[in-house]
Write a structure and sequence with these properties.
By secondary structure, the chain is an alpha/beta fold. It has two domains: 222 residues, P-loop containing nucleotide triphosphate hydrolases (Rossmann fold, 3-Layer(aba) Sandwich), CATH 3.40.50; 192 residues, 2-Layer Sandwich (Nucleotidyltransferase, domain 5). 35% of the residues lie in helices and 18% in strands. The protein has 15 helices and 17 strands. Helix 1 packs across helix 3 and helix 3 packs across helix 4. It is elongated and about 80 Å long.
Amino acid sequence: MTLKPNARTKTRGEDVSNFINAYGRVVKESVGGRAGDLIVMRPWQERLLDGLFATDASGSLKHRTGLIGMARKNGKSALGAGLALYSLYTGDAGGEVYSCASTRDQARIVFNSAKRMVELDAELSAESKIYRDAIEVPSTGSVYRVLSREAGASEGLSPTFVIFDELHVQPDDELWNVMQLGAAARREPMLLGITTAGSRTDNLGRDSLCYRLYQHGKRVAAGEVNDPSFFFAWWEPKAGTEADHSDPKVWAEANPGYGDLCSIEDFKSTLVRTPEAEFRTKRTNVWVVGNTAALPHGAWSKLAEPDRVVAPGTPVVLMGDGSWNGDSTGIVAISVEETPHVWVTGLWEKPADSNEWRVPVADVEQSLRDSAHAMPVVEIGMDPYRWQRSMQVLEDEGLPMIEYPMASVERMVKAWKLFYDSVLDGAFTHDGDPRLARHVENMVLKYDTRGARPTKESKASTRHIDLGICAVAGFERAVWHANAAPPVDVTAQIF
């Protein structure tokens, strides 16, 4: 290679910037450039790399660990890819470079950008062997690989440079610790997280790995902790979590590429259709604090069409959820059509003046039977945790029962995203039932490393949400049926 680090300078940042300018390519059309064009490092990126690649009196790199935080669409993937390639082609012989993330697909985002940069450059391609999840440089014995938390922590690795993409979604410390300990024998290793903010807590309610590193970085920056081996750069509003997330000045503070790499118009358009907590996290790079209302004020009421009549013969999905006692149980129906309609078919709530109360299971079962006989029901979903016996009884009678585990975080995160987007797009209607409205309004969003999903305000809360959860889950199934091919033959069902 023609570019080599200059150990006599106080920083190698200029060398890194020159490498990326010479070999980095825009791999996707964006406001930052056309696909195939050479990357042009911005001044703020050059200053960032000057700090990251600072050297000590002996010319060695000062930092072994780093955390860089900025909002989405500021060129994190391209920057991470450029840094990984710099280490691969100019680093020590026998180098091991890794793109890490919580999932293999996430880890491939930075890696695939880097791979495409190599494919677009004749010099890099000539020196490399390119595989699906690896790039090898035979002349030096160095290799760049994809590694994810879901594949299990790999012992025996000796990384020289590691990029952790979106560190905030790492469910635990395991992979991070393996990479950090594995680098002990290297001369100048670097472990770098590049991320947006996220939830403060992990899946067990503890401070997440990323949030702990963020807190450490803040203390280092404030001079409270002496850790010269740790590099920290974080763009966030000056007012922090108290900042007005709708203020363009706040957007500029949290986005170093504002108006350049990320479009100002995009901020304006996403502001009105993104949950406040998510917008604050992804677009202003502040950490999620507490629960937040599930839907924007007034969004649910706009979908009400109490006079709408679902055409006879239209397929219907039923979704039930609830408990045996002390809470409530509800059933919601959703029509399977281009614009679904949602309505309540049953609700059983604990009376306010009752201390001992149980859900009338027989009544719930009969309500499902009645609905299945009155309408062309293609599916009845229920959480098997509380209703396994009832589901078996009804299935034996010929009703189309399916298990829909409401405790499945991944499933509810996916269902919620579809539901939320559809609410904002006006993609379905409901009958205006005040009971359903109340349950929807009682839902709050829980954020953790796996995403956002609706839940109760607290376990002790007496505010019921079962109809709202049924609407979220049932809508997902109705959309699935609407998109399924061939259409379900509801006339062939016999009850």
